[in-house]
Amino acid sequence: AKSVLQVKGLEVTYYTDLGRAKALDDVSFNLGAGEKLGMVGESGSGKSTMALAMMRMIKPPGRIEGGSVTIDGVDLMALDDDGMRKARLDKIAYIPQGAMNSLNPVMRIGAQMVDAVRSHMPRESGSAIKDRCMHALRSVDLDPSVFRMYAHELSGGMKQRVCIAIGILLEPKVIIADEPTSALDVVTQRQVMETIDRVQDQINAAVILIGHDMGLMAQFVDKVAVMYAGRLVEVSSVRDMFTAPNHPYARALISSLPNLDNKGVFQGIPGLAPSLLRLPGGCAFHPRCSFAMDKCSTVRPEPQILANGRLITCHLFDEETRQ
Ligand code: SF4
Ligand code: MG
User: Fold this and answer.
1) Which residues form the ABC transporter domain (predicted)?
2) What confidence score (pLDDT) does residue 269 get?
3) Which contacts qualify for 224-227: CB closer than 8 Å, 24 or more apart?
4) For position 186, what pLDDT does the model report?
């Protein structure tokens, strides 16, 4: 697939009273049109920070300190504020964690959708905007009557589908959904994932799904990215990741799954996730890694792309180690 999204060297630091915390450290990856990437890792590993950074929605004391996010040849980081406001929803849509609870309770669903479109297409006629909203509702399999309803009249799954409908109103090239199925029952989770799948097919967007349910994710994504302490430690096809994970942390994650083809809710692996304020030197994973070598506590591993196209950030894959 033609690459529509290139993230390069993205860096985010939080300046807190307790010190500097690097929440995102030199994150780079590409995605093709129609490609789906699942992003996993413990809480605090940088998944949501990455989504916010791509949207340029990092709030103080956090700061984006470097990197580029290029969609269709346009670097979002280089846009002025107005350009970025237009790019949101138009080029890149973000469905935040708990989005369904942030629908306006006193405004009809339709009015909220119309507002979203109008803010980007001020000259569009009312009927064209309404057509666009109805089309989006149909795409997510919601009845047209939802247009006139209020959020409290909808189930959790329906609300989540409204949020997806809003996300695709302007047919963005990239969609980021942060934990889109959390707080939903198992059947509804599947429906929401299938909805994302279908709308993504319709508009051929690249999709980033942030989540912790590896089992559910495995059925819907093409590639899996594993984050640890603000870094991308492995990116592999879903098949490679589940059958032969490369990175020791990814291996631990996969082997901690109760059942690969079933409900793989990640239970965690031994040892505490490090505080970003006091990261271990060298490879941040070394205190928990059963493969750690001498240099792991002092030398920071750099991300490298292996011959098979997989990305890995680990000294086990350095040339001299492999020899
Ligand atoms: Fe383990 Fe060393 Fe690889 Fe880090 S670099 S994951 S400590 S082997
Ligand atoms: Mg999160």
Assistant:
1) 7-254
2) 67
3) 224/37, 224/38, 224/39, 224/40, 225/29, 225/37, 225/38, 225/39, 225/40, 226/40, 226/41, 226/250, 226/253, 227/39, 227/40, 227/41, 227/45, 227/46, 227/47, 227/50
4) 87
Residues 6+ apart with CB under 8 A from 251: 245
CATH of the domain at 164: 3.40.50.300
CB 309 within 8 A of CB 240: no
Which amino acid residue places its CA nearest to atom 8 of ligand 1? 292
Alpha helix locations (H) across the chain?
47-54, 81-90, 109-118, 126-139, 156-167, 186-203, 214-218, 238-243, 248-255, 319-322
Measuring from atom 5 of ligand 1, which residue has the nearest CA? 314
First to last CA, the chain: 34
Ligand 1 in reach of 251 Cβ (< 6 A) = no
pLDDT-flagged residues of the chain (< 50): 260, 262, 264
Residue 289 Cβ inside 6 Å of ligand 1? The answer reads: yes
Q: Is 1 helix (H, G, I), strand (E, B) or coil?
A: coil
- Give every strand in the sheet of 62-71, ordered side by side: 19-32, 3-16, 62-71, 74-75
pLDDT for position 265: 52
State in Å: Cα 43 to ligand 2 middle: 6
Q: Distance between CA atoms of 276 and 162, rounded to whole angstroms? A: 35
Can you give the pLDDT at residue 262? 44
**Left (φ > 0), alpha (ψ -120 to 50) or beta: where does 242 sit?**
alpha
Domains held by the chain: number: 1
Token pair 């709030």: residue: 59
Neighbours of 130 (CB within 10 A): 16
For residue range 119-128, what is the model confidence (pLDDT) as tens digits?
999 999 999 9
The domain in which residue 65 lies consists of: 3-322
Q: What length does the chain have?
A: 323
